[in-house]
Amino acid sequence: MKPFSFLFFFFLLGTAFLTGCGPMPSDAVKYNDSLIAIQDKVGERDDVFQNSHDSTPEYIQACYNDLLGQVNTSLTQTEKMGPLGDYDDFRKACLEFLGTYKGVIETEYKGIMDIVIKPDSLITVEEDSVNMELYDRAIDKMDAAISKMVSVQEEFARKFNFQILNSEAE
């Protein structure tokens, strides 16, 4: 009877040790997926805004407002998530990314919208050039922010021993 009690004690001790060591990889995957889902909502609204440029000024403005509203909602949701255990670098990188996105929406996208809501016949060559400059600047800022966030996400995945699946192939 003693060997059984001895094994049971080590089983309980091992279970306590494993559950007391912090988040499990499955927790990290859920956390990762939740943060990405929040960002995906902004991306979906951005796609709608980008595709609205040949529409009416009212629709373009509505798409812009919807995108700005979604980035604000996503920032709030990400802030409320809190860290995973004692690890907060990935959530902070997501907040920084969303903050950059918001800045791009409020500056570059706003400037683009102010131009594309005009009838084509009223857009000057200079405004068309400014539009392209704003677009290029937005792309550069977003690429840098995405690159930084993905780097932190990859570090997060290594720390919690899981693999990031590339959703672009889907």
Describe, in plain words, how this protein is organized in 3D:
The chain is mainly α. It is 78% helix and 0% strand. It has 5 helices and no strands. The protein starts with a helix and ends in an 11-residue tail after the last helix. The model is unreliable at 1-19 (pLDDT under 50).
Feature tags:
mainly alpha
In short:
The chain is mostly helical and 170 residues long. It has five helices and no strands.
What is the topological layout?
Elements: H1 2-19, H2 25-50, H3 57-81, H4 89-116, H5 125-159
Instruction: State the low-pLDDT regions, or none.
Output: 1-19
- Structure summary, number of beta strands: 0
State Rg: 23 Å
Largest sheet: none
Mean pLDDT: 89
Alpha plus pi helix count: 5
Strand content: under 5%
The string of secondary-structure elements, in order, is: HHHHH
